[in-house]
Amino acid sequence: MTLNTAASGQTANIDWANLGFSYIRTDLRFLAHWKDGEWDAGQLTADNTLHIAEGSTALHYGQQCFEGLKAYRAKDGSINLFRPDRNAARMQASCDRLLMPHVPTEMFVEACRQVVAANERFLPPYGTGGSLYLRPFLIGVGDNIGVRTAPEFIFSVFCVPVGPYFKGGLTPHNFITSTYDRAAPNGTGAAKVGGNYAASLLPGAAAKNTSVDGRHFADVIYLDPSTHSKIEEVGAANFFAITKDGSTFVTPKSPSILPSITKYSLLDLARDRLGLKVEEGEIRIDELDRYGEAGACGTAAVITPIGGIQHGDDFHVFHSETEVGPVTRRLYEELTGIQSGDREAPEGWIVKV
Ligand SMILES: Cc1ncc(COP(=O)(O)O)c(C=O)c1O
């Protein structure tokens, strides 16, 4: 759906309750340029296209990175950004890995604020389950041909109103392991760079087109790229599990996993609000019967309960293929309550627009 951008001021004509995760053109986006060692002030623009040099490193050598975060309408009408400083820090880590200049945290957060404020009419109302997804990105541009870092960079932030990434909110989905890897053991898995996602398109499509015993799969479970024996990620989300006795929140630790801001937030909430033990360690694909619940978590996925995992001929069900487990539900309520301002946030987690 493409909306008329001339209608700023009035609420966008959107069916908020049935939003999916698709591109909708919003009014304004932030755009800044880096050249000769510094960023310009940047500005908001209505143009949703980029005009860049044919030799841009982003086009040939994948020198680019991006982020994803959300703005939420609170009950009192104010607007919450969830931990934008963590996205800024992760983008800086991605920049270090691909030899790109940092976007300073203050500039990153301010750009997000400006974009939300300028597109407020696209922010889903409180209680609809929707949010305004922000997509900051940084690309290497300018005249170039060799494999080297770009002479210039563009930083931009645009936004799209979204609903759930996996349909049905807290409905469990099934997933299937892949023999493909999204990243190499010492590659770029921990950075949010486009190459990882290009590598994920084929296994993702294969998973969605596979059916085993009449079961369909929402996405791929990636195993560790060295041994293919431990769970790493769930499509574009992190993985967590709850031990069968309900006592411990466990999540994989590996240098090829994207450090999910949602996952680390859940880990804190599991420990500090649910009183669970928390563990970052190994989750072996042949030891899934240690866990009574499992989930995928991320900005887009929020928390998607994992019904079961197909691995070769084995299908392992956690809590249930149709019902969310009790710990996963409590984590979901705690997280989404904080994001929408209904529950008290740990210090610094919510930044008002
Ligand atoms: C590969 C991958 N893993 C995990 C996540 C979840 O990270 P976050 O919770 O910061 O959105 C994302 C989404 O950003 C992702 O693309």
Automatic annotation (TrEMBL):
Enzyme Commission code(s) on record: 2.6.1.42
PROSITE patterns: AA_TRANSFER_CLASS_4
Matching Pfam families: Aminotran_4
Keyword DNA damage carried by entry: no
Keywords, alphabetical: Amino-acid biosynthesis, Aminotransferase, Branched-chain amino acid biosynthesis, Pyridoxal phosphate, Transferase
Pathway of action: Amino-acid biosynthesis; L-valine biosynthesis; L-valine from pyruvate: step 4/4; Amino-acid biosynthesis; L-isoleucine biosynthesis; L-isoleucine from 2-oxobutanoate: step 4/4; Amino-acid biosynthesis; L-leucine biosynthesis; L-leucine from 3-methyl-2-oxobutanoate: step 4/4
UniProt keyword Amino-acid biosynthesis present: yes
GO MF entries: branched-chain-amino-acid transaminase activity
Organism domain of life: Bacteria
SUPFAM superfamilies: D-aminoacid aminotransferase-like PLP-dependent enzymes
Catalytic activity: L-isoleucine + 2-oxoglutarate = (S)-3-methyl-2-oxopentanoate + L-glutamate; L-valine + 2-oxoglutarate = 3-methyl-2-oxobutanoate + L-glutamate; L-leucine + 2-oxoglutarate = 4-methyl-2-oxopentanoate + L-glutamate
InterPro entries: Aminotrans_IV, Aminotrans_IV_CS, Aminotransferase-like, B_amino_transII, BCAT-like_C, BCAT-like_N, BCAT_family
Cofactor(s) named in the record: pyridoxal 5'-phosphate
Major enzyme class: transferase
UniProt cross-references to PANTHER family, sorted A to Z: AMINO ACID AMINOTRANSFERASE, BRANCHED-CHAIN-AMINO-ACID AMINOTRANSFERASE 3, CHLOROPLASTIC-RELATED
Family to which the UniProt record says this protein belongs: Belongs to the class-IV pyridoxal-phosphate-dependent aminotransferase family.
Protein name: Branched-chain-amino-acid aminotransferase
Organism (species): Deinococcus taklimakanensis
Taxonomic lineage of the native organism: Bacteria, Thermotogati, Deinococcota, Deinococci, Deinococcales
